[in-house]
């Protein structure tokens, strides 16, 4: 299960190069359920996300999904990449340690989404997500704003469509 919160970013942390990072490209084969393919550095992953069987969460609460990730070969990834809907999403993800084992996943988008920066935090349980106090550099909670799902972002032709 994936339990996460997503935020705007008020200010970038200093010296991002000190943190581990991943170069990510991802595309979507289906929505509801969401079927995504992702290249993360040299790893190729097929992800299935669904809300099937889950209790609804508070509209101001975290995003909660059933999530299954499976490895792909490069060949399978490239074959599926040709079948994606919308645009590929390109971003660099910085992994910034927080506290209690939590990690801020800072996504700096590229391509047609250049200028968009979002940070996500995944939680081990709903209680942790509900009591989370974000650091000062986090902005508005976007967890329930569907415009900021990567699936929705893949449908945009430019960043101005977010407004």
Q: Main beta sheet, described?
A: 8 strands, antiparallel, barrel
Mean pLDDT: 93
Q: Write down the CATH topology.
A: Hypothetical Protein Pfu-838710-001
**What would you report as the Rg, rounded to the nearest angstrom?**
16 Å
Strand content: 35-45%
Can you give the helix content as a percent range?
Answer: 10-25%
N-to-C order of helices and strands: EEEEEHEEEHEH
Structural class, judged by helices and strands? mainly beta
Shape: globular
What is the CATH homology-level superfamily? Hypothetical Protein Pfu-838710-001
Largest beta sheet: strand ordering:
1-5-4-3-2-6-7-8
Number of helices: 3
- Total beta strand runs: 9
Indicate the CATH architecture: Beta Barrel
- Terminal Cα span: 31 Å
CATH class: Mainly Beta
Regions with little confidence, pLDDT below 50 for 5+ residues: none
Describe this protein with a few key phrases.
globular, 163 residues, Hypothetical Protein Pfu-838710-001, 3 helices, mainly beta, eight-stranded antiparallel barrel
Task: Outline the structure in words.
The chain has 163 residues and is mostly beta strands. The chain has one domain (2-162): Hypothetical Protein Pfu-838710-001. 12% of the residues lie in helices and 45% in strands. The protein contains three helices and nine strands; from the N terminus they run E-E-E-E-E-H-E-E-E-H-E-H. The protein has helices at residues 74-81, 126-131, 150-154; strands at residues 2-9, 20-30, 34-40, 43-50, 63-71, 85-97, 103-109, 117-122, 138-141. The protein has an eight-stranded antiparallel beta barrel with strand order 1-5-4-3-2-6-7-8. It is globular.
């Amino acid at each position: 299960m994936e339990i996460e919160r997503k935020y705007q970013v008020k200010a970038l942390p200093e010296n991002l190069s000190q943190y581990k990072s991943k170069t990510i490209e991802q595309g979507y084969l289906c929505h509801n359920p969401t079927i995504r393919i992702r290249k993360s550095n040299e790893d190729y992953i097929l992800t299935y996300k669904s809300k099937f069987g889950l209790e609804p969460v508070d509209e101001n609460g975290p995003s909660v999904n059933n999530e299954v990730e499976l490895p792909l070969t490069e060949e399978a990834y490239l074959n599926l990449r040709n079948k994606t809907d919308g645009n590929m999403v390109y971003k660099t993800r910085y992994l910034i340690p927080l506290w209690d084992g939590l990690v801020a996943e800072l996504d700096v988008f590229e391509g047609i989404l250049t200028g968009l920066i979002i940070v996500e935090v995944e939680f081990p349980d709903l209680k942790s997500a509900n009591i989370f106090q974000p650091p000062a550099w986090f902005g508005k909670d976007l967890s329930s704003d569907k415009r900021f799902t990567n699936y929705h972002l893949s449908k945009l032709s430019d960043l101005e469509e977010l407004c």
